[in-house]
Design a protein that fits this description.
Chain lengths: 452, 452
């Protein structure tokens, strides 16, 4: 039945080419927008209903912003783009031979979706460098669900410490370890430092949140590897001024329920967050084509897959070398590649000639380190401090996907700068409530704790 | 160990009386604030970290507001109130003989907390009138987790319908049944009607969200029972203008995975929401004292429990009659009772005389029905329409717990009024991702669906 239905569709669709885009992140969404006026049926498939502004995910994890300030329905963004259909579902396979992908959703498995052109913009997830057993103890930060889980965990540790009579247990509850000192690790560490020093101040009676220990670990010799040594040094200094312990030159040897081991030393911690490696999506496996060592699909200079001129791979899941160096996994690359792929397909459909090869224009890198301080590097130009932070804030506001989000995030940042209060300091337990209670008498006998 | 520690504390605390408040809702929070300058150690215990503005919970469930706009950390509200400690935990029992309650949190079971005065403000939950098997299919709306789950479910049904080729399956996916036509049911029904008619408009290609069927069921002969017949009629008319089917005079006989049965007729629906009865917290069972038929603790005219002059019960979990009628389970009652209990304890500690008995001052009732329309009744005065909605909006903004929430909710409402866009249309899956995929070939053979 499915077969005949699919074939029926295929024979019908001769006139209007179908462009299937997998992923509604920076790459996929930009590609879809570039196809706005193209005489094609565009189908964008994502496994979440929202476009996520990942660069601000750490601000959800640290209670500054609420999930809805960095996540916006893809359907609402593309609602007025009449040639585009949005499907909520997870792509499970690509059938190159029959030009179709398979999509599963909450109710259905492997629905076939046929394409004439395919853009895979499926991004990346965490990589534990072969130590997947770490994931249970050191979750990463890639989705809104991840960020909310981290927020719950961070806020919960302060609650548990406040209820804990034994001060020796406060130490590991109030120790936070971030593994990976790239932009996410640095931004997260400094946001945590501000959380404990300003927002949580005077909210507790038994513990002093400002006494929390925040440790940032990386095997690299400096923080913010992609930046100049001068800016790395400035960021490190700033982190240390905020009270963050920066441990460089050694990775973590071990992560478990009691904390981490770094260079032979155990750091007891109940909250370890993974801000290190990323691994590309399985696009390379779906396509069964050549990938780089990390698993990213090697693409040609028009972003198509060798031997498959109608299949394009963009963003974090693509391996593209320019000037002998692979392009980094950042939003700018994904957006420029998505736009290029969308325009190329438009030109092909119109019967135009092949455009010039893709070339990435690097506008530069930025990272925030605490309150009103950022580092910024663009080509040979570099700066740090408040002015860099203002530029960072303006650019990030500008790239939010709607005016309502821009206003809302702007007001929240202004409020947080002035008052230290954050916008979304919630623990929402989406699973069960507190543990079941045994008979009172029995529990009293065994209980070792008492709330003063 | 716990025993000696607890006793040790008890002998130490002679000088400063300890007031334990259970519940950080309207009743408990107001009581805590009334004890601000009292020479007492106040301990407020809640099982969530936030004070929840429950009257706007339906706006989270229908994507208008984000959870952080109606939930605010209790700890932050009371942070500057030096005599007050906040504990995140769930009370599991009260030991009247030894003046203590037992609290469990994520790490610990039944920690004893001793009190000199106890205020139980533990609210209410859903009641399925003895048909608890309905809960699985018709969840209620009492917590932020409930509201987010309902939001996910509502948004998800539109996604599933959009991906569904068989139009006969669209009907039950796009039918929403609300059981209970009190304020929550009416507000939820009208907010859903606006969602499908405005916010979701032109966001889908295969389905027309405006064709969704919204059914509001109640066994009562009219909607909004507590209001005058005239206002009930106005609200019903307004609901029908919005396209809501109002079915009165018959309760639901059955709720299951396929929908509901009302007066012998089956209404196929994948989304049934329980907006009917409430049941009080187990405060009466903890205390082993007399309750009314619903299980609410009968209290004296100073809100104390008969025979226990230092134990007070306030809000939805208390049964208090005035002029021969039980007070309703609304925020105003809880706040006035909480304030009274806090002031009474302050006076007792100061050695002053017993105040006049508690008397509820009814400021009136309001309910929103769709865009820019509310009904309002205060004593013999009643009104409906835009002016009533403006009063509703002003009063609700005023009762939000911080200025930042007031500004943020005000801006969101203005934005939604003008553009129809909502602030938090997210599906965030806090559990697992899409179902695991079996081998592609097998699935293709069995799949009956195809995305056009």
């Amino acid at each position: 039945m499915a077969g005949s239905s699919a074939l029926g569709r295929e024979s019908m669709r001769e006139s209007t080419p179908r462009v299937v885009i997998v992923g509604g992140g920076f790459g996929g969404l930009t590609a879809a927008k570039a196809l706005k006026n193209t005489p094609a049926k565009v189908i964008l498939i994502d496994r979440t209903n929202h476009h996520l502004f990942q660069p601000l995910l750490y601000q959800v994890a640290t209670s500054v912003l609420s999930p809805s300030q960095i996540g916006f329905p893809i359907r609402a963004i593309l609602g007025k783009q009449k040639n585009t259909t949005v499907i909520l579902g997870e792509v499970t396979a690509v059938d190159k031979g029959n030009n179709r992908v398979f999509v599963s959703d909450a109710d259905r498995l492997d629905m076939p979706v046929t394409y004439d052109y395919l853009i895979l913009a499926t991004g990346a997830t965490h990589s534990y460098f072969g130590r997947n057993e770490f994931e249970k103890f050191a979750p990463g930060l890639k989705s809104l669900a991840d960020a909310v889980a981290t927020r719950n965990k961070v806020l919960q540790t302060f609650e548990l410490a406040e209820a804990e009579e034994d001060p020796s247990r406060h130490r590991d509850l109030l120790t936070f370890v971030l593994v990976g000192a790239g932009p996410t690790g640095v931004e997260m560490a400094s946001a945590l430092a501000l959380l404990v020093k300003t927002t949580l101040k005077s909210n507790f009676r038994r513990i002093d949140p400002a006494s929390a220990r925040i440790v940032l670990v990386d095997m690299a010799p400096r923080v913010l590897g992609p930046f100049s040594e001068h800016l790395s040094q400035a960021a490190k200094q700033r982190l240390e001024n905020l009270g963050v312990e920066v441990r460089l030159g050694h990775g973590v040897d071990q992560i478990d329920g009691d904390g981490v081991v770094v260079a032979g030393e155990r750091i007891a911690s109940k909250t370890v967050i993974w801000t290190a490696g990323v691994a590309p999506s399985p696009a390379g496996k779906w396509l069964k084509v050549e990938t780089d060592r990390a698993g990213r699909v090697r693409i040609q200079n028009d972003l198509s897959v060798p031997g498959h001129p109608k299949i394009f791979v963009v963003g974090d899941t693509a391996a593209f070398e320019q000037d002998g160096k692979p392009l980094p996994g950042v939003a700018q690359v994904a957006m420029q590649q998505g736009r290029y792929a969308g325009k190329l397909i438009t030109r092909r459909i119109a019967g135009g000639k092949q455009p010039a090869p893709f070339s990435y224009f690097d506008k530069g890198n930025m990272a925030v380190v605490g309150k009103g301080f950022a580092v910024l590097q663009s080509g040979k130009f570099q700066m740090s401090g408040l002015a860099a932070w203002l530029i960072w804030a303006l650019i990030h506001l500008q790239f939010l996907v709607t005016p309502s989000l821009r206003l809302s995030v702007f007001l929240q940042w202004a409020w947080t700068q002035v008052t230290g209060q954050r916008g979304s300091r919630l623990i929402v337990n989406h699973h069960a409530s507190a543990p079941a209670s045994p008979a009172v008498e029995e529990a009293v006998l065994s209980s070792k704790r008492h709330i003063a």
